[in-house]
Amino acid sequence: MFSKACGVVQNFTKPVIVTTRTADGIVDSGCATFLVVNSDGWIVTAAHVLNAMHAAKQHAKEKSEHETNIATIKSDNSLSVRNRNRKLEHYKANPKWITQQSFWWWRDGVWAKEFRIDPQADIAIAKLEGFDTSIISCFPTFKKPNTDPSPGGSLCRLGFPFATVTSTFDEATQQFKTQLGNLAMFPNDGIHTRMVVTIDQGTKRQVKFIETSTPGLKGQSGGPLFDTEGHIWGIQTSTDHLELGFTPKILKDKKVLEVKEYQFMHVGRCTHVQHVVNLFNLAGVQYASE
Fold first, then answer.
1. Three-state SS for 153?
2. Where do the domains of the chain lie?
3. Coil, helix or strand for 199?
4. 8 Å CB contact between 99 and 185
5. Count of beta carbons in the 10 Å neighbourhood of residue 219
6. CATH classification of 3-289 is 2.40.10.120, yes or no?
7. Which pTM was predicted?
């Protein structure tokens, strides 16, 4: 059903590898997805894909403040050695501070700038530099923002949920070395179940999410939700877990026991195209619309 659409959407759906190193030396990598929107190199993805970037900035600030406090205590000649040591005991470095972080946008030598982020809708756009957009044979066509998919209609998402990413950090070059395996696109389809609306209690702003009967998988965050024509309805941003409320009975030692087990239906949540194109319009980004 979606073979033709996947053939179109795969042209502009690409992987991003996010790698971090924390103060304790632990290196962690993960894969997510983004869409190349136009020939100028603008992209769209889920806002939470950029969490490491924001965290690294906050951690750098905290680390600097920590080092300043330590230096102040050590240079305070009014303190006895005992009191100085007592004060120093209260200032412990956080081993989980991010000290290095990297984003690999499908190609070496590519970096992102001019970020625009909508936290409530969990989407972000940015402009890639050093990226040759001539290798993209076509760009996405977004649905009109004032339309919703029909309940029961078939939709599909695409991303890179089963990528194998192994990274190390080279102290000599101060760079990550990453090995990628199984970096293949993976589609999963489902039906549109309902619209989910969240409301910011402060601003009263409403944000629409398209719910699907199948979950978004890790690695598909930031990827497209599209119909059989390959038109983009939204961006995959989260998976929700709906409790089914069943209490199954089991037979144990010839006795029927009623056991409370939490069982869930996992559903996908995709940010509605309305919020995606609104972000494009605010930044003056050109895009195709159906």
1. coil
2. 3-289
3. strand
4. no
5. 22
6. yes
7. 0.91
